[in-house]
């Protein structure tokens, strides 16, 4: 047995051999210097007295490990190099003081129990895990506390406030430091290097709120910035979990983000289905960008010519929060026309097959794309696919009259198909029957496009008329002047 009464200096580290017992009888300070570490292969009793401290002051990375776990009273991290690396679960019953250097937990945990706390953590001396986005490397700091009704500030030094009238009593809280990521097509969507497990937290609300103190460095290797961060909570519906945004307020000067004090601080889809949704324990910080990666795993998106039709097919291997698909087509990759809206599977972990037929395809090359919209209103586009289903136009017939009338564009754009070299007349007529535009167009290369300026037009209803010797097509449009 090795007794420590007041002071010990371990220049090359401290190793407790199998069968040995390290006991601290009263206040003591153990300094681990150089590049030495703390290796416990025996037993250690270091829990007597509030001044019982192990201080790591090395000039290279130092380890805490061994075959057996150690229960410390106080630990001080004062490493002038990269800090400490944890190789075994440990307990800290007093204070874990972050002076200089980080504390890399790797895949191990620090349990603060009911009395321990984290102190003086900063952006340059913090708890972390490396490498990020690595399975198994997800060490946590754990604390058990009795929460009161109302505000509980900086619980166990974990940079977390809980202001609640329902989340009270004895609670075990865990803080993780790994970067959470999506999978498949949305694997680029990642969180900050910080999250919390709050078992039983349930739905956040006016009287059930969280406040998190973050460091800017916890957004490293990430496109997330303070200007667009929000809190996210993992929720579950129909057995499929996903993250939903929480209405949040950011104080960039203090590096604080809190859930807003409203009855339902979630998106409309969630608030409308509170009885169907389970609110899980995991809360983190992520991006509030509208261009989130596609929340589906799109396996394929193909087109097939079928006589005078185009068959569009797509397959997903899983879907999260997927409301609906919109099919769009274009003759030139510039003007896009919505041709169908198809409901998504919502949340699904199995394969889903979709099919839709374009009954009026363009003659020749046409381009198609798939727009996916989730329950939050966020959307994104698939890659563009093309097809060439040329159909011979006979006589002076024409078809596929399409009018692009974007209120933010200066021109009305008209496209149609007909027989090459034959004349077609185009008119723009107001509600009084006056012809405001008249042009004879000779179709070139089957497909024709005409632009009509809106600069001289007033707000109102107009008719576009396309005619030849045998046919006439009329479509009504509305002009809204900005």
Distance between the termini: 87 Å
Low-confidence stretches: 1-7, 289-294, 392-396
Biggest β-sheet: count, sense, barrel? 10 strands, parallel
CATH class categorisation of the largest domain: Mainly Beta
* Shape, principal axes of CA atoms: elongated
Assembly status: single chain
Number of helices: 1
**% residues in beta strands:** over 45%
> What does the average pLDDT come to?
82
Extended strand count: 41
The CATH topology of the largest domain corresponds to Chondroitinase Ac, Chain A, domain 3
Radius of gyration: 33 Å
The helix/strand class is mainly beta
Helix content percent band: under 10%
CATH architecture assignment name of the largest domain: Sandwich
Quickly count the domains: 4
Write out key terms for the chains shown.
482 residues, mainly beta, Chondroitinase Ac, Chain A, domain 3, Immunoglobulin-like, 4 domains, 10-stranded parallel beta sheet, 1 helix, 1% helix, 53% strand, disordered N terminus
At a glance:
The chain is 1% helix and 53% strand. It is an all-beta fold. It has 4 domains: 1-128, no CATH class; 133-292, Chondroitinase Ac, Chain A, domain 3; 296-388, Immunoglobulin-like (Sandwich); 398-479, Immunoglobulin-like (Sandwich), CATH 2.60.40.
